[in-house]
Amino acid sequence: MARGSFLVLPLLLLSAWSVAAHKHHDELTEEQANAPVDTILWLHIFLQAAVWGVLFPTGMVLGLSRSRWHVPLQSVGFALTAAGYVLGHSHKGRAFLAGAHGKMANILFIPIALQLFLGVYLKLHIHEQTLRPWAVRLHGVVGKAYPILGWVQMLFGAITFGGYCRGDNLGQCLAHYIMGSGFIAYGTIMAILLLVGEAWIRRSGRSPDWWDSWVIMLWGIVNTFTEHRGSSWSVKDMQHTILGVLWWAGGILGIYLSRNNQRSVVPALIIILTGWAMSDHAQALMLSTKVHALFGYTLMSAGLARIIEICFVAPKYTPEVVAGDGHSEHTLDGAREDTALAPSSPSRAFRHLPPFLLVASGLLFMSATDEELHFVNDNGMDHVTYILIMFSIAFVLYTLIVTLINLYSTTGRNATAAAAAGDGAIELTEGNKWYAPVPATDVEPASHVIGDDD
After folding, report:
1. Which one of 73, 79, 180, 408 is most buried, counting C-beta atoms within 10 A?
2. pLDDT tens per residue across span 258-315
3. Where would I find the DUF2427 domain in this sequence (predicted)?
4. CA geometry: angle 433, 437, 440, nearest 5 deg
């Protein structure tokens, strides 16, 4: 790692010089704005999307599983990132206004340089009892932030490429992109918890719905006080504000009902109500109305699938109070025989439906800004084609998510457990339990728990 990192440093310095030397435009002529996109810029787009969207997340997962391929893959990613910076500031043809994408490119040098430094330092194996444990933790935190940083930068890139989110359109863009990204993150976290996170859930002593309810409540408080601006109230202001009230009010109920390690359908019910509201959201364009309606239906389907998963697919409630289970009368019992799901079990297949629908609804909402839909409408595309494009992207994105989850459970120190299971299942724990009481003993599970950095 040390040798590879030192080879990357000159490339980073070159790309930093390229960023500093590249001229960002405050105003564009019509010729500059309509010039064709050259091959160099297309290479920059596809290269950086591959590195930050696939390569770095894969390297992060290999780091979590302690795979020997983590260091080589991340080193290649650093080198390609530097090359991508140079390409992004060497293109000719179409010019773009200065914006968040260019500023974020400069900011990204901080985590890149920090991760390079920490990687070299950790390979030296010095200060084992003093500084190194803290460096390990910091290295893990920065590494886990890479997918988020990459996602934000790719969104900024798409916004810059389309010339969106300027002037009066900024507020709407923020609402769509932040909330849409939130739904995608929600689906991703749900998939992780359902597939490889059950040991962490057991140790936390809280049901997944307790965590969901807290996030919904806090986001509702923020939404209640940020959706209305000015003195007059529009229909959209009223709808968005009352959605915030719905979230924090329902979130409070969800927290209460999810106490003592219990399951609750309240977060799913809030998702259904939000989807219904969005499906009947008034829009100026018919295309926009259709896209918002399908977004709402998809979100409602995600909430319904979550209720089915909680009430009918997950193990039934046990009336017995087990020592160490948080004294819940309704804690899910993982000791039942029907919780051992076969690889071809319908239950195993169904669990993917709620997170996938959340990912799809997030992409639909992100693609439903006024500027994007006006562009689609002006180019003669109908809502059916546009929606199918978004679902195609959702399939690709969810494939990447579950592939990374499976990679975590079958590589590095988890490879032995996966080979012992022998059924190709993603789950790492014995018995394939969905959710179980907190263990009464102090014995740690043999499998790796998400979040451990030791």
Report:
1. 408
2. 988 889 999 999 999 999 988 887 677 888 889 999 999 999 999 999 999 888 876 4
3. 25-125
4. 120
Distance CA 365, CA 361 (A): 6
HEC string of the chain equals: CHHHHHHHHHHHHHHHHHHHHCCCECCCCHHHHHCCECHHHHHHHHHHHHHHHHHHHHHHHHHHCCCCCHHHHHHHHHHHHHHHHHHHCCCCECCCECCHHHHHHHHCHHHHHHHHHHHHHHHHCCCCCCCHHHHHHHHHHHHHHHHHHHHHHHHHHHHHHHCCCCHHHHHHHHHHHHHHHHHHHHHHHHHHHHHCCHHHHHHHCCCHHHHHHHHHHHHHHHHHCCCCCCCCCCHHHHHHHHHHHHHHHHHHHHHHHCHHHCCCCHHHHHHHHHHHHHHCCCCCCHHHHHHHHHHHHHHHHHHHHHHHHHHHHCCCECCCCCCCCCCCCCCECCCCHHHCCCCCCHHHHHCCHHHHHHHHHHHHHHCCCHHHHHHHHHCCCCHHHHHHHHHHHHHHHHHHHHHHHHHHHHCHHHHHHHHHHCCCCCCCCHHHCCCCCCCCCCCCCCCCCCCCCC
- The model's pLDDT over 147-175, given as tens digits with 9 standing for 90+, comes to 999 999 999 999 988 888 888 788 788 88
Four-residue CA torsion sign, 29, 158, 283, 379: positive
